[in-house]
Amino acid sequence: MPVTKLEVTTAMKVRTLMRHFRESLKSLGRNGWMTFASVSAVTVTLLLVGVFVLIMMNLNKVADDLENDVEIKSFVSLEADEARVAEIETAIKGLSGVETVDFSTKEDELSDLVLDFGDEFSLFEQSNPLLDVFYVKATEPQETENVAKEILALDGIEEVKYGEGKIEKLFSFLNTGRNVGLVLILALLFTAMFLISNTIRITIVARRHEIEIMKLVGATNWFVRIPFILEGMWLGLLGSILPIGLIVALYYNVTEFVQPKLSGELVQLLDFAPFIYQVSALILLMGVFIGVWGSFMSIRKFLRV
Amino acid sequence: MIQMKNVYKKYPNGIVALNGMNVEIKQGEFVYIVGPSGAGKSTFIKMMYREESPTSGQMLVNGVDLAKIKRKNIPLLRRQIGVVFQDFKLLPRLNVYENVAFALEVIEEKPESIRKRVLEVLDLVGLKHKARMFPRELSGGEQQRISVARSIVNMPKVVIADEPTGNLDPETSWEIMNLFERINASGTTILMATHNREIVNTMRHRVIAIEGGLIARDEAGGDYGYEG
Questions:
Q1: Domain CATH code at residue A140
Q2: Which residues of B touch A (CB under 8 A)?
Q3: Annotated domain spans of chain B
Q4: Average pLDDT, 10 consecutive residues per value, chain A (305 residues)
Q5: Cα separation of A61 and A269, whole Å?
Q6: pTM here?
Q7: What are residue B169's DSSP bridge partners?
Q8: Among A7, A15, A216, whose Cβ lies nearest the Cβ of B78?
Q9: Considering the domain boundaries, does residue A9 fall inside one?
Q10: Are B132 and A40 in contact (CB under 8 A)?
Q11: Which of A42, A300, B80, B221 is the most buried (most CB within 10 A)?
Q12: The complex's ipTM?
C-alpha cells in the first residue's frame, strides 16, 4: 500500500476568518451569563486600575511641579562690574546640567520685594542693599545641589541659596511616593490579569468538551482557537467601555471643579485633553490584551486531543 | 484501506490493550468489532482516528501510517474519516444544521456547497425539517442520526462507529443500522464496534472478535458469538 503524506496548509481563507468573527460574536450571545460574568470581572478591575492610574499620574505631576519649582538663587558680589556679570552668565550657561538662567538686577529684586511685602520697602530705593541675582534651574531637579556648588565656585559669586537640606528631604519623599505608586500599579495590574484570565478560564473549562469534539471532527488547533481568542477580545472590549466612560466623566468633573481653584498656583493637575485619551487607550488595550491572552492561555491544554 | 501490522498498545498504567494485532480491512467492507468489555475494542476503534496512538507496529489508514503521523497533521486524517460515537458528541451550542456544517467548515468548503451538501445529508437521515433545532431538543435516536449525518457529510471513505446503538432503544437502533447499510451500499467502508447481538446476527457482515488484545475470531458473515 502506498504511504500518503498529509500536510496541513496554514494559509487561512478570508471567508474562514469571517466565519471565525461570526462564530465569536454568536458565541458571546449563546454563552449568556458566562459572557456577563467575564465582562463584569473586566469592568470592575479596569475601573480600579483606571482610577488608580488617574490618581498616581496626578500625584506624579504634583511631585514634578514641586521639583521643578526648585531654583538656585545665585548672588553676585558687589565688586563684580558689568563685564564680569556678563562673564558669569556665560560661565553658568556653560555648566552641564543647567536648563535656564535668568538675570535680575538689584533694582528688579527690590521692586519684587515691594510688590510682595508693601511700600515700606520702597524706602530702600535711596540706598539699595540688595545684590544682583542669577536664577538658575537645573535640567534634573535632583542635580540642583551639584549645580549650586559649581556656581558658588565661580569668581564673583557671593552666595547661593537653593533650600539646601529641605529639598533633599522633599526629593527623597517624592521618590519614595513614586516608587510606592509604581509598585501598587504593577500589583493591581497583576491582580487584574489574574482575575480576568481566571474568569475566562472558567468559561473555557466549561466548554472543554466542545473543544474535544471540534478536534475529533478534524478541526486544526487554530480553527478551534481563533474564535475563542476573538471572543476574549470582545470580552475585553466590552469590559473596557464602562470604565472608560466613567473615568472620562469623573476626570472631566474633577478638572472642571478643581482646575479653576488652582489657577496661578504652583501645583497643577494634568490637563484633561491628551491625558484622559491616553488613559482611555491604555484601559482599552489592557482589556483587549488580557482578554486575548487569557483565552489563549486557557485553551492551550484542552487542544491536546 | 485499513491495515494493522503487529500493532501493540500499552497504556502508561501498564495495561496492554492491543498485543500485536494484525488485520486488514478493504475498501467497501462492513465490519463488526465484537468482544467483551476491556478486551481492546475501544482502543482498536480509537486508534483509527488517532485518539490513541500505537506503542509500536505499523498502522495504515487510507495509506497514512498513524504510528508516525505528526500531531499537526492529525486533523487531516480525521477529515478523511467519519466517526460516530456512542454519546453522539454533538456541539450543544450549535443547532442541527450548524453541527453538520461544522465538519465542512473545518475543511474551508465554499458556503454554497456547504449549504447544499448539509441539506442533502439531513434529507438522507430524514431530519431536514429539524435543521434549526438544538441537540437538547431532539431524542437520542434523532441526535445519533445527526451524528451520522455529520460523519458522512464530507464523503469519507470510511465511517467508524463506536457502539452507535449503545444508548438507543431497539427500534431507533434499527433506524441507525439502516442508515449504515445505505452508506455502506454507496461504497463507504463501515467499521462498527458493538455489543448488540441481535443486530450482528440479523444484518450479517464480517465479524472480528477481539479478546485479550488479540483477534480471537474473524469470519465473513459471522454471528455475534457471545451470550447476551
A1: 3.30.70.3040
A2: 3, 49, 51, 60, 62-65, 69, 72-73, 75-79, 83, 89-93, 102-103, 105-108, 111, 150
A3: 92-154
A4: 55 82 88 86 89 88 83 87 86 86 87 82 80 88 85 87 82 86 85 79 84 91 92 92 95 89 81 90 91 88 83
A5: 7
A6: 0.75
A7: none
A8: A216
A9: no
A10: no
A11: A42
A12: 0.89
